[in-house]
Amino acid sequence: METENTISPEFHFPDADLIIRTVDNMTFHVHKFILSFASRVFRDMLSLDNLQRPSHPHQRVVDVSETSMIWDAALRYLYPLPRPTFKNLGPIALLFAISDKYDIPIIASALEDTILISNLSKRYPIRSFALAKKFNRARLLTRAETELVKQHCEIIRTTTVPEELDYITVDDVRRLEFYRTERLSRIRKYLTTTKLLPTPECNCWERYKRTVPKRCEAWECFVDACWEELRESPTSDISDLRLRRRAVEESECPDAQEVLFRHYDLDIGTLEYEVSRYAWLYPEKWAESKATIAATNEEEREDIEFEYTE
């Protein structure tokens, strides 16, 4: 027994010349011109005119495998109707899939914009990254990579496994770890070599008087504390007083408290501003690193020799 079709309450235009029939038997009465303009798949399909004929000879029917809920949301990106709002990435993933299947660029671009102007990539950085990889969304990829580096997300250890996770490769994981390490090393070098106010003649002055610039041993402890903090929490504020307290506890200089909390107080505030401006992604350096690794591997292959026992 054939199930009776239900007509979409929103998409039943009187001048419609195309019917989309979903897997749950809802029909959307729409326009061939709009679907052909938005979707390359529909354009090719309609140009071949290889569709079922309904009772009205001027209309055509396309049977699709998706539900009416998905098609109702998708068509709202092609007509001037309210678009869906999103609390998570689940519905967005479904719409990305239909956009990809039927080649509807306007939906994919709009979804990417939605994620970028919301906090969804911050709340779901791993899945945002996976979606960007699966559906080739360059802007979302950059945003998601930045969030993954900022939040120090460990993709391999994640307990949340979205279906798009398979699109994240080992090379992606290595690249993100490279970005974290590169940023940390640059910050450490900056903190170690930056010019500070002249160090007062503290207890450790004699031991460090030959260094340029001269500085208290407590400063190295402070740099170590900053490095450890930023390694675990990349967005931390290095002017946080607890980092100086940690450095004082680790320092052997009895004047460390005075040096870090009074003498270098303004310096540390300035350094925090500079550290916060460091880039999160280093694609050029990553490309250089990969090229170096590839060259090393090539040299190793050239040195390979086969040995045989007689």
Automatic annotation (TrEMBL):
Q: Which residues cross the membrane?
A: none
**PROSITE patterns listed in its UniProt record:** BTB
User: Which InterPro entries does the entry mention?
Assistant: BTB/POZ_dom, SKP1/BTB/POZ_sf
Q: In this record, what's one Pfam family?
A: BTB
The BTB domain covers which part of the protein? 14-79
Would you tell me the protein name for this molecule?
BTB domain-containing protein
Annotated source species: Sistotremastrum niveocremeum HHB9708
